[in-house]
Amino acid sequence: MTELLSDFHEDVDHMTDEEFDAAFEKAQELSAYFREIGPKYDIENTFAYPTIAKFKESGLGAFSVPKRYGGMGGNILQTSKIISELSRGDSAITLAYNMHFIMVGMCMGLFSEEQNKLWLGRVVEGDIVFGPFSEQRAGFSGLADMKAVPQPEGGWRIYGKKVWGTLGEASDIVTTNATITDAEGNLPESFEERVEAESFFVAEFDVDENGQGDGIRIEKTWDALGMHATGTHTIHFEGFYIPEDGFVCEWRAGAFGVLEWASLMFASIYLGMQYRVLEEAREVLSKKTLGATFGAIAAAETKVSNVGHIIDGIGDMASRVELSRRVVYRTCQELVDGDDDNWPVELRFPYIGLAKTFCSENVMHMTKRAMSLVGGSSFKKGAIFERLYRDSAASMFQPLNSDQSCTYIGEQLLAPDELND
Amino acid sequence: MSTFKDADEVYALIGRAMEACVVEPAFVEATKDGNLVVLIKQTDPEAYILVDFPGQKVLVGDAAQAASSTVQLRMSSDNANKFWQGKLNFTLAMAQRKVKLDGKRSTALALLPLTGPIFETYKAILAEAGRTDLLVG
Ligand SMILES: Cc1cc2nc3c(=O)[nH]c(=O)nc-3n(C[C@H](O)[C@H](O)[C@H](O)COP(=O)(O)OP(=O)(O)OC[C@H]3O[C@@H](n4cnc5c(N)ncnc54)[C@H](O)[C@@H]3O)c2cc1C
């Protein structure tokens, strides 16, 4: 890293309100398109291929790239608003492109000046980035079993596989983590050495229409409860060559300072979904009439918008949306203003993660509640509510999840004052 | 058993490396307009070193303790010895509570990538003082 992060933040903060409004309009158009085609790709259980051209056309891929590299210079709060707007249209398609925004955000804080010029320049030209990190043994927190074997001519050959490779089918640039081995491909023996050797790389991702590349390939394995259109496939690295200038930094030390881009972009996805759940629930429940009923309410004509628990339910959902919005916006703003400096350093990561876990808990609560309020029709295939219910379940997994956040925080707070030597 | 005899030895070795640190051009450039004053509190042996980056000065012992600081860094003297030779992974040490950082985080952490040249200086100081036994392999 050749510059202080504070200089960097100054630079990205410069998107004006007018520029933001123009970009947001583009996001609204793209969101409407995602909304229109989302159901088809949910049913077909594939990546939404036609979105690639539309996404590139929108220019939004360069939204958070600093202006000095040719991007729009959106900060993390402005980016969050764009993501939520897209997610309001379609959560699965947006979760896929979210990977691009996460990786651009993380990379620009970790790349050298030359790497920023090269790779962010490519993003400005329309290239898409993805980041397969998680492996089978343990997700994001697992040290990479994937190996980077040093080559006599310089650079590394990468061997291993990543089982959560969202957006690979649309991507031109791959970022990943692998552990640098000795020349024979042996991983370091001690835990400390493994941490030191785990490294972050960036490289060209050039595969054909069947996902086959030189030393790298996509195996189409994605088949899950929800988030069908994310195309979260397995990426095999089979001697994939990364030249020396593809090394970015030591992975964990680097990631520590930029993980907000992952955590808060996920939060923004689930906030956007909350907007959509509320919108859809209001749409149905403000109009639905049950006619003559005999039960909790026995009447000749029962309009659901007059039923107590439905009124409360909508009020509760709207309150959750507003609270979530404030939590996400406020967290982003504290980062923009540098107020996170006042948080205990060891709690920075889980504290940033609180926005994501809060949105996650709320969106899961809301999708379930919306189904119960709307009634049985919401449970049928093709109904937006069952779709949102399935998609929202994915929020349990991306880092940090609620359980891990609480463990992280509790452990720190209960630790003795003495150092752990 | 600590690697250092006593606090005075810590000051003579690590304190001296810090004196080189505050005039190192990369640090001077990165810290000249800020208020980064780091109080390094070492344990076993107990020792205090205050590194005033904008003021380009280093205080030790009681004077260091009495001065005000914007960042407090706590670690054992053994870990400090490793750290100043580039042999302590700071992020891991923080996660494992071997190092404790309090106060303004961002400026302090932004300096980490600049520490490289100091490692050689510290190793040279150890060699000059005849303490090559403190060199970490
Ligand atoms: C739709 C979707 C898309 C995704 N896309 C990507 C992607 O593009 N790139 C990518 O890298 N990943 C991606 N992921 C993977 C995701 O980030 C997680 O890595 C993955 O869900 C596995 O992690 P986990 O913690 O859920 O499970 P595991 O790591 O298997 O954890 C199992 C259990 O242990 C707990 N646990 C895990 N680690 C720790 C720890 N350090 N301390 C204490 N407890 C722990 C967990 O909370 C859980 O209870 C995606 C996931 C989903 C659902």
TrEMBL record, chain A:
Domain Acyl-CoA dehydrogenase/oxidase C-terminal, first and last residues per copy: 312-394
Name its co-factor(s): FAD
| Residues annotated as domain Acyl-CoA dehydrogenase/oxidase N-terminal | 40-127
- The question of whether Flavoprotein is a record keyword is answered with yes
Q: Which InterPro entries match?
A: Acyl-CoA_Oxase/DH_mid-dom_sf, AcylCo_DH-like_C, AcylCo_DH/oxidase_C, AcylCoA_DH/ox_N, AcylCoA_DH/ox_N_sf, AcylCoA_DH/oxidase_NM_dom_sf
The GO terms describing molecular function are: acyl-CoA dehydrogenase activity; flavin adenine dinucleotide binding
Q: Which keywords belong to this entry?
A: FAD, Flavoprotein
What is the residue range of the signal peptide feature?
none
Give the similarity note.
Belongs to the acyl-CoA dehydrogenase family.
* Name of this chain's protein: Acyl-CoA dehydrogenase
From TrEMBL, chain B:
Domain of life of the source: Bacteria
Write down the InterPro entries for this protein, in alphabetical order: SCP2_sterol-bd_dom, SCP2_sterol-bd_dom_sf
SCP2 domain span: 35-111
Q: Give one Pfam family.
A: SCP2
This chain's protein is named SCP2 domain-containing protein
